[in-house]
Amino acid sequence: MKAAAAVPDKLRVPSGLAGVEVAETRIGKSDSDGSLVYRGYPIRELADNAGFEETAYLILNGSLPARAQLLEFSSALKSSMDVPPKAFEVMGALGGGAHPIDALRTTVSALGSLDREGVAAAQQRSIEGKMAVLAANCHRVPRGERPFLPDGKGGFASSLLRMLTGKSIEGYDLWAFERVLLFYMEHDLNASSFTVRVVASTLADPYAATSAGLAALKGPLHGGANEDAMKMLLEIGDPEKGKEYVDSALERKVKVAGFGHRVYKKFDPRAVLCKGYLREMLKRRGEDDKIYRLCDAVEAEMMERKGLPPNLDYYAAPIFYLLGIEIPLYTPIFAASRVFGWMAHYNEQVAENKLIRPDAVYVGPTDLRYVPIERR
Amino acid sequence: MKAAAAVPDKLRVPSGLAGVEVAETRIGKSDSDGSLVYRGYPIRELADNAGFEETAYLILNGSLPARAQLLEFSSALKSSMDVPPKAFEVMGALGGGAHPIDALRTTVSALGSLDREGVAAAQQRSIEGKMAVLAANCHRVPRGERPFLPDGKGGFASSLLRMLTGKSIEGYDLWAFERVLLFYMEHDLNASSFTVRVVASTLADPYAATSAGLAALKGPLHGGANEDAMKMLLEIGDPEKGKEYVDSALERKVKVAGFGHRVYKKFDPRAVLCKGYLREMLKRRGEDDKIYRLCDAVEAEMMERKGLPPNLDYYAAPIFYLLGIEIPLYTPIFAASRVFGWMAHYNEQVAENKLIRPDAVYVGPTDLRYVPIERR
Q1: Confidence of residue B117 (pLDDT cuts 50, 70, 90)
Q2: N or C: which end of chain A has fewer CB within 10 A?
Q3: Chain B residues inside the 8 Å CB shell of A201
Q4: How distant is the Cα of A299 from the closest Cα of chain B, in angstroms?
Q5: What was the pLDDT predicted at B260?
Q6: Contacts made by residues B276-284, CB under 8 angstroms, sequence distance 24+
């Protein structure tokens, strides 16, 4: 008989796994100094030059695609946007009171049964393509409205934006939207990507892992911040009232939406870029820049009072708003892009897998004896 | 302006978080020496004395209930078994090819929209009660069969067993089934309970967290082992062939289902107890003990050859089989009981919450420059 395996030493780590390096990754890295890289490319390099599909290919495969690879990837993604009617049936059955993220999670979960893709890579393209369609419709279909389906024209960003708004949007507006999608695609071990990795470590399929990622995104500490930021900006309404709003919120200990980040302490590079896009969008449209000035006023006061920089959600929100996207769709858009990062994490986890099964320190009582109910 | 918060020190931990203590818990503790406690009670104390509802109450609340508390809890659980018809509609839409755990996950996810319980505790009782009904029907309903509904008689275990089998089962058989449920209820930070805690840490609702737990249970490294064990036992068929099967499997490097555990290295106390129940069930029924002898032969050979003890799944499987439960329902039964542990972990996480957001070590390239597609 062999000896029992040695018991590993125990290691107590900080709450929330803050600063705890649980894995090696080659996907990307955000840093407290305000840097973010995807597969070695600084986010600015990609924002200035790359399209959505080639960035998604990069995140998934580790290198920028050659033309033939990009064509094949884009074409697989486009044809995977064909959502089975039963999925819309499931979404519709949830009814008008359904939270969009609940509807999206339930329908993606259903795809695990409805979708007949057998190969892992085909399953992943299928989830990614269908997520875009389901994300765009997760607020409409539960209310009994007919889904906006992809018309097969244009790229991923253009197609998603058309389904989100019912309109064809081009030029700088589309370009800026595509940048925001790039920024939402990946952000190392955020709560949803880590959830995906924990589920992947059981060797569950990508549908199961994606459902779990969407479950994490339901939580207000992870998803929803772009929606909250927009509601707050609309509530303030006037740049002149920005300072007053912040002061009053801080006094009442009310959270100011769109500020603070577990990683970025000085600035969020994505927010800096989005702020520029917002100004440029307004300028090119020849519109009043009130919303820009409002954002800027709140930002200045938050920096002055708390030293907290705005995050991506804060500047993504007014861009989505200018594009005419309904607020309840902001977090579903996040999901439609982040799913590419989730799949990259899924693959990285499975490639060198070890079941993620931590320990806990038991601090309760011990050796209690059962007492019959009549003597309790 | 305030200074930016200090960057925490980084701490590299073993892969799979093995031996890494990520939280304090008062819920329970399994130990490598073969001990398991729920809220301070050794599992044997509870197995010998306690019923399902009072153990569930204990796990959720930290102490055994007085009679009035038990009545109130049991009654809330029973009345929460009322599943909305739309949930069965969603389950039915998935079709006969649906994996039972996919069907269960999707339908529990849908409950997040369909169920109108507003208060956290009421939501949790609602999930727990409905999970039992959905678990019992997640193989029938997708195939188009009518659901087996609770008839309001008896306790949780009795009601679940009737829905699972379509028959009323009492006496020692029911008592043994209830013990197996007790054993599946809680097992500290296993992959699904940890998933639930990660999702809870975003402050997502219990439906979202439970969907994610079910996603983790889909993975063959976490769920499915009791089903695999039963299929293997049926394949071997004869106690005389146990040794030969193990030797051949080890030679071919095929996994022998139901052996080995991340925590228990010497023995799994739940397996030891279940082995006794299996023998006693056969004895009281006056049936041939072939299946017991088969289990024992495989166990002896695995101990001899690998030093690996059987786990709970290994001895739960033949008990379920004797009760006439279809094999695809074995993991759903696990889920129907484990959901009580999940809710206890949900509550413990939320009570002193910090978002679970680990770090990763980036080991990829840095400072790459974008190269236009025509030059790749």
Answers
A1: confident
A2: N
A3: 16, 191, 219, 221
A4: 13
A5: 86
A6: B277/B176, B277/B179, B277/B180, B277/B315, B277/B319, B278/B176, B278/B315, B278/B318, B278/B319, B278/B322, B280/B172, B280/B176, B281/B172, B281/B173, B281/B176, B281/B319, B281/B322, B282/B322, B284/B171, B284/B172
CA distance B186 to A360: 13
Provide the shortest C-alpha distance from residue A52 to chain B (in Å): 14
Distance CA A90, CA A144 (A): 12
Residue to substitute from A17, A33, A57, A89, interface B, most B β-carbons within 10 A: A17
Catalytic residues of A: 261, 313
Using alpha carbons only, give the angle A191, A192, A194 rounded to the nearest 5 degrees: 65
The pLDDT tens digits of the residues spanning B48-64 come to 999 999 999 999 999 99
In chain A, % of residues over pLDDT 90: 92
Q: How far is A241 from chain B (nearest CA, A)?
A: 20
Q: In this complex, which of A66, A262, A373 lies closest to B67 when CB atoms are compared?
A: A373
**B3 falls in which pLDDT band (50, 70, 90)?**
very low
Residue A212 has pLDDT above 60, yes or no: yes
Chain B interface disruption, residue of A52, A356, A375, most B CBs within 10 A: A356
> Which residues in B217-327 belong to E strands, given as ranges?
none
Take residue A139 and report the two structure tokens written for it. Answer: 């607020």
Each residue of A133-183: pLDDT tens digit?
999 999 999 999 999 999 989 999 999 999 999 999 999 999 999 999 999
CATH architecture for segment(s) B225-322: Orthogonal Bundle (1.10)
Asked whether the beta carbons of residue A99 and residue B114 sit closer than 8 angstroms, the reply is no
| Angle, CA A141 vertex, CA A135 and CA A145 arms, to 5° | 130
When CB atoms are compared, the residue of A93, A217, A358 closest to B194 is: A358
The tokens describing B178, both together, are 């209830």
Interface contact B221-A201, CB threshold 8 A: yes
Whether the per-residue pLDDT at B81 is higher than 50: the answer is yes
Name the residue among B1, B4, B114 with its Cβ closest to that of A304.
B1
CATH number assigned to the domain covering B30-220+328-351: 1.10.580.10
Inter-chain residue contact A198 with B191, CB threshold 8 Å: yes
- Give start and end residues of each alpha helix (H) in A29-170: 43-49, 52-61, 67-79, 85-93, 100-114, 120-137, 156-165
Q: Where in chain A are the domains?
A: 30-220+328-351, 225-322
Candidates B41, B197, B198: best to mutate against A (most CBs of A within 10 A) is B198
- pLDDT exceeds cutoff 90 at B133: yes
Say if residue A7's pLDDT is above 90. Answer: no
**A8: pLDDT confidence band, cut at 50, 70 and 90?**
low
Instruction: Please list every residue in chain B whose beta carbon sits closer than 8 Å to the beta carbon of residue A35.
Output: none
Q: How confident is the model at residue B2 (pLDDT cuts 50, 70, 90)?
A: very low
Q: Which two tokens stand for residue B82?
A: 């009322």
Write out the two tokens for A287. Answer: 């519109």
Task: Report the distance separating Cα A138 and Cα A142, nearest Å.
Answer: 7
Residue of A nearest to B107 (CA): A106
Q: Which residues of B are catalytically annotated?
A: 261, 313
